[in-house]
Write a structure and sequence with these properties.
Elements: E1 5-8, H1 11-18, E2 24-28, E3 33-37, E4 47-52, E5 64-69, E6 74-78, E7 81-82, E8 84-85, H2 98-101, E9 103-104, E10 114-115, E11 117-118, E12 120-130, H3 136-141, H4 147-165, H5 173-191, E13 204-212
Parallel strand pairs: 1-6
Antiparallel strand pairs: 2-13, 3-4, 4-5, 6-7, 6-12, 8-11, 9-10, 12-13
Helix pairs in contact: 4-5
The structure holds zinc ion.
Residues 86, 88-89, 91, 104, 106, 114 line the site of zinc ion (ZN).
Length: 215
């Protein structure tokens, strides 16, 4: 079996996916990432996010690496470990403990274990949008109650932790602080259904719609 590309998720996200309560994910667009459509190296109709690699003298090396591709499975990882879930009891798997044993004894019969499954998703559609453009339906597809809850979560992942990791004297602190202020303002606008104005933290994000891999 060829090794699958990986996609990392938090434990909460992986649990929602395993329970079929989440079928979209959004990731910040990084520098040098772009969407390939109807051009090399993807097939017509296929979509893939490519990462441009540094220029190299070696012509055998590709200039781009494919990160995600529609129809091509991705292995979900939590803390760099594959995420396992039990297909029988749909065990929530509180700390990804199934990754250690690979079996679940949910039947109550200690001799009758269920083989846990690796969580693998298949991208169906990939697109680019602005973070604040997510619709209420999009937030629900992400596994959240609404757009506000989704944004709070994103800020937790990308904004708040950064500030906590930096000291005031560190390079990047000022910028991180700026982003925090601008993301708070954005959240307020969304909460009160105000118009989104320039200057708010509103980065580009990749959206991925996916399904669970049926093995
Ligand atoms: Zn089970």
């Amino acid at each position: 079996m060829t090794e699958l590309n990986k996609i990392s998720m938090t434990l909460e996200q992986a649990q929602l996916v395993a329970k079929n309560l989440k079928d979209e994910t959004r990731r910040l667009v990084k520098e040098d990432e772009f969407l390939a459509m109807d051009t090399w190296p993807v097939e017509k109709g296929e979509q893939a996010v490519l990462i441009a690699l540094p220029d190299t003298e070696d012509v055998s090396k590709p200039l781009h690496e494919i990160k995600w591709r529609t129809g091509v499975p991705l292995q979900v990882e939590v803390d760099k470990q594959p995420f396992y879930y039990c297909p029988k009891c749909n065990q929530i798997n509180p700390s990804n403990t199934l990754a250690l044993t690979n079996i679940c004894c949910c039947t109550g019969d200690r001799t009758n274990y269920t083989q846990a499954k690796q969580l693998i998703i298949v991208p169906l559609k990939i697109w680019k949008e602005k973070l604040l453009d997510i619709t209420e339906a999009g937030a629900i597809a992400e596994g959240f109650e609404n757009k506000v809850e989704f944004l709070k979560y994103i800020y937790g992942c990308y904004v708040n932790y950064k500030i906590h990791e930096l000291k005031e004297s560190d390079e990047g602190y000022k910028e991180a602080e700026q982003i925090r202020v601008q993301s708070r303002k954005a959240l307020k606008k969304i909460m009160f259904h105000d118009e989104i104005v320039d200057g708010l933290w509103n980065p580009g994000v990749w959206g991925i719609k996916f399904k669970l891999e049926e093995l």
